[in-house]
């Protein structure tokens, strides 16, 4: 039996700042670096679909593991609105457009490697947690989480 986990984030906004001061050495030349950048990235329609199957743990006959794992990640759009104090409006606009276009390329190029990356990291962690859990314990855990989420009073301001 395969299970599917489908998570959708309508919008994720990332704010931050980068203050970089120092010297960059290229081919024996020292180039001063003095950057003060405000980071503002908005990811819309992020969707993660995980298709997985539970199997028997390889180390514990009563435990579980993820025996089959396939993840697909889809992103609707990435808007970059960073602001670099050391360059003018035209270069900031060009930089933001370039980073937005680069994100499209990265999504297409990295998609085939997502399963391998998650298999070596996340799946290994999940299997370690599940190896001492039975299916009943896992179902009880999911029921507990579902009850907690359903009684949470959330309002969405759009």
Q: Could you name the key traits of this structure?
A:
158 residues, four-stranded antiparallel beta sheet, elongated, alpha+beta, 4 strands
Summarize the helices and strands and which ones pair or pack.
Elements: E1 2-26, E2 29-56, E3 64-80, E4 83-84, H1 89-110, H2 114-120, H3 122-130, H4 135-150
Antiparallel strand pairs: 1-2, 2-3, 2-4
Give me a quick take on this structure.
34% of the residues lie in helices and 46% in strands. With 158 residues, it is α+β, with helices and mostly antiparallel strands. The mean pLDDT is 87.
Describe this entry's structure for a reader:
With 158 residues, the protein is of the alpha+beta class. 34% of the residues lie in helices and 46% in strands. It contains four helices and four strands; from the N terminus they run ββββαααα. Strands 1, 2, 3 and 4 form a four-stranded antiparallel beta sheet that branches. The protein is elongated. The protein starts with a strand and ends in an 8-residue tail after the last helix. The model has no long low-confidence stretch (mean pLDDT 87).
């Amino acid at each position: 039996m395969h299970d599917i986990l489908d998570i959708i984030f309508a919008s994720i906004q990332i704010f931050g700042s980068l203050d970089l001061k120092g010297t960059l050495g290229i081919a024996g030349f020292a180039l001063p670096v003095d950057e003060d950048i405000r980071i503002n990235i908005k990811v819309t329609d992020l969707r993660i679909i995980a298709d997985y199957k539970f199997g028997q743990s390889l180390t514990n006959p009563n435990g579980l593991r993820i025996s089959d794992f396939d993840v697909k990640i889809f992103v609707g759009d990435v808007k970059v609105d960073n602001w670099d104090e050391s360059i003018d409006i035209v270069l900031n606009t060009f930089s933001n457009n370039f980073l937005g276009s680069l994100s499209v390329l990265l999504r297409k190029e990295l998609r085939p490697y997502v399963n391998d990356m998650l298999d070596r990291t996340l799946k290994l962690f999940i299997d370690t947690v599940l190896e001492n859990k039975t299916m009943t314990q896992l179902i009880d855990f999911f029921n507990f989480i579902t009850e907690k989420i359903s009684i949470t009073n959330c309002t969405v301001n759009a």
